[in-house]
C-alpha cells in the first residue's frame, strides 16, 4: 500500500496519543488495521520499530513503510461522504470476481483513504457512510456504542403478530441472539409487504437472516439511517454527497468525539451533490 507524505496526526504541545489512534485519525485506516501494521513492523517512531501501546506527540517522527507522515493542519476536519448505494455493487476495494465496487465512484484522496462505515451486501441498497477518520468509523461501527441502523424491508408475505413479537424479543441465530428495537408495517401490494425496522447491530446479513429464520424471504432491503446520519431524500442512487463542515461538527459532537475547527468553505461547494460515471478497475 502506498502512502504520500502529506499527513501526520498533529498533537498540541505536551499531549501524546496512542500510536494506533494517531494513525487512524490521520485517515490511514481503522485502529484495528493500524494495530496490525504495528505488529507487522511497518511503523517506526523516531527511527525505532514501534510496538503496540506506544504513544506519540507533536515532535515525534512517525513513518509507515519508511515514509514520513508529515503533520496535518490542526484546523483540518475529517471528511465524511454519504453514498446512495444501488444493488449490484460490493463494499470492497478489490473483488476477485471483478464486480463493480462502491469505491469506483468515490473522489480520489491524497494522504488518506476512504473507510466504509459498515457494509451492505451485493443485493442491498441505501445509505453508506465513508470517512477519512478512523475514530468516526470505529465509534459508529463498534458494537459497544450500539448505534441504531434503520432499514426499509420488503418481504414476500405478511408477518403475523407472533412473528413480530419474536423479532422484538430476540431470536437465536447461529452466531447468537438478535432482536429488533422496533418494527412498523409500511403497507404494500399483492404478496409483498414493506416494514420499517430498527436494530442496534451490524452482523453480516443480520436483517435477511432474521427474516429467513421466520421462513420469510426479503425481496428488497434498503438502509435509510445509520446512527445520527440519514439518507438524504434528494440523493439518487449512485450519487455521493459530502457533509458540510457544520454537519461534520454536528456528527462529531453526536458521537462524543473532539471537534476540529476549519475555515469556512463555499456553501455551494460543500453542499453540492456530485455524480460520477462508473470506472472499471
Describe the structure.
- The chain is α+β, with helices and mostly antiparallel strands and 281 residues long.
- Among the domains are: 17-68, Roll (Structural Genomics Hypothetical 15.5 Kd Protein In mrcA-pckA Intergenic Region, Chain A); 80-127 and 139-230, Pseudouridine synthase.
- The chain is 20% helix and 27% strand.
- It has seven helices and 18 strands.
- It has helices at residues 19-25, 31-39, 134-141, 161-169, 206-213, 245-254, 267-271, and strands at residues 17-18, 43-45, 48-49, 55-56, 62-64, 67-68, 80-85, 115-117, 125-131, 149-156, 171-173, 176-178, 182-185, 192-199, 217-226, 229-230, 239-242, 273-275.
- The strands form four sheets. Strands 7, 8, 9, 10, 13, 14, 15, 16, 17 and 18 form a ten-stranded mixed sheet that branches.
- A hairpin with a 6-residue loop joins strand 13 (182-185) and strand 14.
- The relative contact order is 0.16.
Question: What are the salient characteristics of this protein?
Answer:
single chain, 281 residues, alpha+beta, Structural Genomics Hypothetical 15.5 Kd Protein In mrcA-pckA Intergenic Region, Chain A, Pseudouridine synthase, elongated, disordered N terminus, disordered C terminus
Short note summarizing the structure:
The protein has 7 helices and 18 strands. The protein is of the alpha+beta class. It is elongated and about 65 Å long.
| Backbone CA Rg | 21 Å
According to CATH, what is the topology of the domain at 80-127 and 139-230?
Pseudouridine synthase
Considering the protein shown, what is the CATH homologous superfamily of the domain at 80-127 and 139-230? Pseudouridine synthase
Rough shape? elongated
Number of strands: 18
* Global mean pLDDT: 84
Report the major sheet.
10 strands, mixed
Helicity level, as a percent range?
10-25%
User: Residue ranges: pLDDT <50 for 5 or more in a row?
Assistant: 1-13, 71-75, 261-281
Number of helices: 7
Strand content: 25-35%
Series of secondary-structure elements, N-terminal to C-terminal? EHHEEEEEEEEHEHEEEEHEEEHHE
Distance N terminus to C terminus?
16 Å
What is the level-2 CATH architecture name of the domain at 80-127 and 139-230? 2-Layer Sandwich
Structural class: alpha+beta
CATH class of the domain at 80-127 and 139-230: Alpha Beta
